[in-house]
């Protein structure tokens, strides 16, 4: 999956949903952490904007040592350039690989991951890594997209007009996506690993991307077939995608996208 510079310009959905989490759980987190300066890890931090603006900027959490990790080197470079300082560092890391036994990457108080786990194939390893990275009593919050009509439409398009660009969507998305059993699968796994679950929630959302530019940039950044498509085909494909949305929204809000997420708040025992 390619995440480009474009992506970081259009992540208001991610900012909004992360902000909702902290607003909703502000008192609970305050009660858990008191005013302790926290060590925070952000997994799949991307360009670091959500970490900077929401986790560190809005949440009210006190922090001393913050690390954002992502497997995409380009985005980590961008995050370093814009947001690193003596308390905040960014590292290229794949959450599906073995977690390093390095003091700087252990004993975190809070692990956060916003809208990255739907790309994570080996989610078992990723949750085990969160367990390794946390101190006992430390908390994590992971939120990932469970389903979106965008993917259903991609599938329909590459099964018809764009057959030439077909690739297996399951190579991109976690098997937790589009799976009705996901909340119970995750619950069982987390308890086995050694977490106490505060909540696992299946949530329905919608987002109005508002403009064609924003809609295209967002769907392109997340489009598994994009690399294979020449520019002119991509334009046609985007036009088709947009007209289907317009049709689904009955000519009204053309860039309105419903989606669901799974949100997990848990504590290392
Ligand atoms: C949709 S972006 C979310 C970025 C940011 N958390 C936000 O809320 O805007 C998903 C990010 O997850 C990263 N990612 C996907 N799989 C990963 C993995 N196995 N290890 C580390 N990062 C991963 C991608 O590179 C991408 O930057």
List the helices and strands and how they pair.
Blueprint: H1 5-9, H2 12-33, E1 38-43, H3 49-56, E2 63-70, H4 73-83, E3 88-92, E4 108-114, H5 123-133, E5 134-148, H6 149-158, H7 182-193, E6 195-208, H8 212-221, H9 231-248, E7 256-268
Parallel strand pairs: 1-2, 1-4, 2-3, 4-5
Antiparallel strand pairs: 5-7, 6-7
Helix pairs in contact: 2-3, 6-9
The structure holds S-adenosylmethionine.
How would you describe this protein?
The protein has 269 residues and is of the alpha/beta class. The protein has one domain (5-148, 172-208, 258-268): Vaccinia Virus protein VP39 (Rossmann fold, 3-Layer(aba) Sandwich). The chain has nine helices and seven strands, in the order ααβαβαββαβααβααβ. It has helices at 5-9, 12-33, 49-56, 73-83, 123-133, 149-158, 182-193, 212-221, 231-248; strands at 38-43, 63-70, 88-92, 108-114, 134-148, 195-208, 256-268. It has a seven-stranded mixed β-sheet with strand order 3-2-1-4-5-7-6, with helices on both faces. The chain is globular. Bound molecules: S-adenosylmethionine (SAM). The site of S-adenosylmethionine has 19 residues, from loops. Residues 35-146 form the Methyltransferase domain. This is Methyltransferase domain-containing protein.
Count of distinct strands: 7
CATH classification class: Alpha Beta
Tally of discrete structural domains: 1
Largest sheet: 7 strands, mixed
Strand coverage percent: 25-35%
Indicate the structural class. Answer: alpha/beta
Organism: Polypedilum vanderplanki (Sleeping chironomid midge)
Protein name: Methyltransferase domain-containing protein
GO molecular function: S-adenosylmethionine-dependent methyltransferase activity
Domain Methyltransferase: 35-146
């Amino acid at each position: 999956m390619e995440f480009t510079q474009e992506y970081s310009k259009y992540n208001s959905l991610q900012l909004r949903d992360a902000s909702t989490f902290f607003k909703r759980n502000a008192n609970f987190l305050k009660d858990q952490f008191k005013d302790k300066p926290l060590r925070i890890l952000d997994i799949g931090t991307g360009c670091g904007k959500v970490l900077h603006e929401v986790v560190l900027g809005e949440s009210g959490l006190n922090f001393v040592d913050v690390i954002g990790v992502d497997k995409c080197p380009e985005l980590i470079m961008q995050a370093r350039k814009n947001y690193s300082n003596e308390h905040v560092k960014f590292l290229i890391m794949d959450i599906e690989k073995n977690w390093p036994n390095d003091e700087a990457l252990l004993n975190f108080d809070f692990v956060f991951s916003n809208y990255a786990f739907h790309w994570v194939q080996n989610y078992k390893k990723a949750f085990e890594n969160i367990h390794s990275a946390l101190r006992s009593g430390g908390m994590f919050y992971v939120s990932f997209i469970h389903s979106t009509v965008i993917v259903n439409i991609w599938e329909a398009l590459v099964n018809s007009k764009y057959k030439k660009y077909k690739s297996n969507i399951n190579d991109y998305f976690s098997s937790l996506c589009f799976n009705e059993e996901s909340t119970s699968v995750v619950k069982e796994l987390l308890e086995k690993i050694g977490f106490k679950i505060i909540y696992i929630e299946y949530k329905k959302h919608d987002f109005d991307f508002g403009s064609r530019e924003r809609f295209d940039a967002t769907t392109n950044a997340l489009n598994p077939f994009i690399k294979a498509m020449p520019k002119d085909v991509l334009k046609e494909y985007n036009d088709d995608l947009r007209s289907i949305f317009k049709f689904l929204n009955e000519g009204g809000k053309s860039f309105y996208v419903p989606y669901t997420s799974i949100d997990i708040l848990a504590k290392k025992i």
